[in-house]
Amino acid sequence: MRTVRDVHARTVQAPADTVGALLDRLGGADDPLFPTPVWPPMRFDRPLGVGADGGHGFVRYRVAAYEPGRRIRFDFTGGEDGWHEITVRPLGPGSCRVEHVLQSRLPLGQRVMWTLAIRAAHGTVVEEIFDNIERAATGRASAPVRRSPRVRLLNRLLWDRPRAVELPAAARLAHRAFPRTDFQDAWQMDLLPGMPQEPEAWEGVLRGASFPVAGRADGEILLGKDARHLDFRASILVADGRVTLGTVVRLHRTTGRLYFAVVRHVHPFMARLMLRRIHRRLALAAPTAGERAAAPV
Q1: Does the CA dihedral 109-113-114-115 come out positive or negative?
Q2: What is residue 202's three-state secondary structure?
Q3: Is 19 exposed, middle or buried (0-12, 13-18, 19+ CB in 10 A)?
Q4: Residue 178 dihedral angles phi and psi, to the nearest 5°
Q5: Per-residue pLDDT tens digits for 51-90
Q6: What span, in angstroms and rounded, lies between the C-alpha atoms of 52 and 43?
Q7: Rounded CA gap, 256 and 181, in Å?
Q8: Closest CA to 271 of 235, 296, 240
Q9: N-to-C CA span, the chain
Q10: What is the pTM of this model?
């Protein structure tokens, strides 16, 4: 195994105490630094401190050292040998230097992955953290990082996928759509910090389908259309930190049953694709963590 080492640093025109106070909120519910919702949030099993266990996405680590306002060191867990840490060093009364260092011993296969994909994504995430430090501390990022085509592709490939769930009880419009339902399903994704909570923002999940709105109530929008062979309703529910795309269908006559016998095999793929696509689109369009922290309450 060989050691890889990656260092990023930036001078921030803000006092070290101001930046350090932002650093102390890393991983919390009001984290102003980690670049969500474009990347999975950093989360721990307890408040930030030595022993807190967590990570972001598939990267797992534990807090090994913590000097409030100055330094946090994370040791990788799950069999990976290494660490990464972020430090804040004062340069004067009105500026400081923020540095992130990663060091890890990787076998050949993981080194190849690091070189081809992970290093670029890691560097982008770190630079976006620095951007958010500047936004939250000074109101603007001096030179925001740009995501390369490789990083954008990796982000797309790693984006979370909808999971199958029972149609939530809170989707009352969908449950009451028909006196008799011949088919129903639901697909769900978690809302990331900074993503819109209003169901109207999620109507784009059915963009291009031209279904009229059949009802709105309590965080749910119901769209649908009646036809001779079947009646169809799509429910978009935003509640409890999740967005759910549900479908209910009522079939008519033999033609409806024959038609849906084919469509039901295509429908889950299309529902997952549409929900995942709008989920990522809204995340990319959302304000950054630094912008949200700097915005007036």
Answers
A1: positive
A2: helix
A3: buried
A4: -130, 145
A5: 999 999 999 999 999 999 999 999 999 778 899 999 999 9
A6: 9
A7: 13
A8: 235
A9: 50
A10: 0.91
